[in-house]
Amino acid sequence: MPLSYDPISVLQAVGYTEREAAFLYLTAVHSGYFLRRQYVRFIQRGRGALAEQLLRRASALGHIQSIACGQARFVYHVHASAIYEAAGLAALRHRRLKGDASIKSRLMVLDFVLDHLDDPMLDTRESKVLHFTSALGLKEAMLPSVHGAAFADDFPILLGSPLRFTFFDEGALSSSAFEKFLGRYRAVLDALTGFALLYIVDSPENIERARTVFGSKHRALNAPGAFSLTPRGFEHLLEFVRARERVEARNEPPTLRDLAVLREGEAIYTTPQHHTLLAELGNGNGAVERVRLRLRQQSGHVAFLPVVLPYRYPIHRFKFEGQPKPELGSSNGSSAARLFEL
């Protein structure tokens, strides 16, 4: 739900400039981690005092810690609960220190977001749930979740036609994470009239493997008569309509096939678009061919779009720096006070 206050102003109140506050808010929402170059890109200035100013201020306030990556390079972790509270993130999901692969993935997310600051985007879990349930009419049970948390991957979704989902591959050795992602999102993707999946990497090595996985998971979408709204094919939708009519008429007991189709259809045909189709197909008078033709003409395009980020990440084996470096941030725990009382 929308915040009842301006988080940028809250962060400014403790001493950050407007640009510093905006960047820390963006980092807290999308990543939890940032690189010096990402802040420089955000403020559209060259290297120099402004980046150093942010690091010194955030370190002095106990809001960041630095993670040494070797060769005098650092990743900065926004770990103070006060920043996440100001951003309205009660779960503080990016506050906890993660492993190398997860940190790299979050840095990639932040780079992608910086590349798309002018694009309308679903960035928080709350905004995604609201969009898919209220704007698109999907049941909350259809949304991708992990341990009951919807959209737990925290990957941004770009609004538009079609919706553009994102998956970030930090260089995984297997496709298991991508396969699990597609499995979690299957119900949502099947309910859309079209979508694009941006497969985001910093190296092209895994792209073809991922393309194969995506194709195998979405074969049905490319089959004759199988569109996003009808993943089992148009004939399955007709069979569902006829089975439901026979059951409602009560002229004869339903067959085992009727019961199986009804069980399958009740899990698939759940959106307002499906309800409109079902009502139209029940009208007769040539409705079947009209709906079939319209679906063929309006069927959404399903696209797998690789995106290779032109950035490099100093991620090898993370180690906390041995000695605190105030100008870079500190790996010591924060005792900073809350920015405000929630």
Write a structural description:
The protein has 342 residues and is of the alpha+beta class. It has three domains: 1-98 and 318-342, Arc Repressor Mutant, subunit A (Orthogonal Bundle), CATH 1.10.10; 121-226 and 301-308, no CATH class; 234-298, no CATH class. It is built from 13 helices and eleven strands. The chain has helices at 7-12, 18-30, 36-43, 49-60, 81-86, 100-115, 125-135, 176-191, 207-217, 234-249, 256-268, 272-281, 287-298, and strands at 33-34, 64-70, 73-78, 121-122, 145-146, 149-150, 157-158, 163-168, 195-201, 302-308, 319-320. The strands form four sheets. Strands 1-3-2-11 form a four-stranded antiparallel sheet. A three-stranded parallel sheet has the order 8-9-10. A two-stranded antiparallel sheet has the order 4-7. Helix 10 crosses helix 11 (256-268). The longest helix has 16 residues, at 100-115. The protein is elongated and about 80 Å long. The relative contact order is 0.15. Residues 220-226 and 317-342 have low confidence and may be disordered.
Shape: elongated
List the helices and strands in order: HHEHHEEHHEHEEEEHEHHHHHEE
Mean pLDDT: 81
Distance between the termini: 15 Å
Number of separate structural domains? 3
Strand order of the largest sheet: 1-3-2-11
How many DSSP helices? Answer: 13
Q: Structural class, judged by helices and strands?
A: alpha+beta
**Most strands sheet:** 4 strands, antiparallel
CATH topology of the largest domain: Arc Repressor Mutant, subunit A
From the coordinates shown, what is the CATH architecture of the largest domain?
Orthogonal Bundle
What would CATH call the class of the largest domain? Answer: Mainly Alpha
Approximately how much helix is present in the residues?
40-55%
**Residues in β-strands, percent:** 5-15%
**What would you report as the Rg, rounded to the nearest angstrom?**
24 Å
Uncertain stretches of 5 or more adjacent residues: 220-226, 317-342
Compute the number of strand runs.
11
